[in-house]
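Recap from last week: sequence in, structure out.
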Amino acid sequence: MVQQKKIPTIAYFISYHGFGHATRAAAVMAAFKRLLPQVRFELFTNCPRPLFESAIGDDFGYFDLQADVGVVQRSPLEEDFEATGRKLSAWIPFDPRLIERAAQHLQRQGCQLVICEISPLGIAAARGAGVPSVLIENFTWDFIYEPYLEQVPGLEMYSYYLKNIFSQADLHIQTEPVCRPAESAIQVAPISRMPRTAPEETRTRLKVPLDAKMVVVSMGGVPDQFRFLGRLPAAIEPYIVIPSADHLYCGHERIILLPTHSEFFHPDLLLAADLLIGKAGYSTIAEVYHTGVPFGYVPRPQSPETPALERFIKDHLSAQAISAQEYTEGRWFAMLPDLLKMPRGRPTQKNGADAVARLLGERFFSLPTL
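Predicted structure tokens:
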């Protein structure tokens, strides 16, 4: 009797804090698919399925659960740490029954590895199932909570609880730009989904002339009202493409509003654009790094992540800062002539997703070492 070869199966626990963690996970999964086409994924998250379908198709398991609390957002640029503390109080310590159900699912599906982006719940479930776990991060939640420990009741206790669980991962991978480098971690280049459509095709589908300037406005998947739409200048020269503009309307012929889950792959939009206006978040920075699009970035001065992100922006990207007020009030429209003069960066093919897939493939799935 011929013994059937076991299908490589990986569980992925994914934080739903904007779209950044989901898109980073999707990039790693797509890289795995290129190396091991037969690999199967079991996703533990409440991130919308289309985020993953656009990267790896629809052949994956989906276990709908809250894999993380992260930080409660008032808007793409404002966090609410008091609300975060209240949510953490209902989530920590982890419910043993939830851990047991997740661990049983891992065992039933034959998962050989658990990857956590950046969900500590996955590490706990992996330990319950006797499966190795991998933490992938450029920050962990205890780092983000640190400046607010004295202001928010209970936050120090929750931070310590999560820090302890993060330390139990069997393998630790950090992806540039890293907020707090760890000596025990393996560092890789920025992880991003890669473009797959020629700029000319994307512009044709958008009905943007090939010789026109095109600007994309993106806030990383956290809902935004794009209030600047109510303060548009009389004349707009470039075409302005705005993803995740659900339920909004603008009658201007040069403003193109797209739903959150549109037919347009976000990295393709950036590759086709002459400029990106957006929040300086990890996934956006990684996509700028890989497409070379000039970046008018909106920093978040209060975020502990900002210093590391801004250092990376200044060292590696063609970019200029736009204040939150300039963004919200639409004053960046007057800045467009100068912003559009920024040179395009050189796209890089060095994607941390490929390094992660190769590393884990060699370590856990018997891929030959290069």
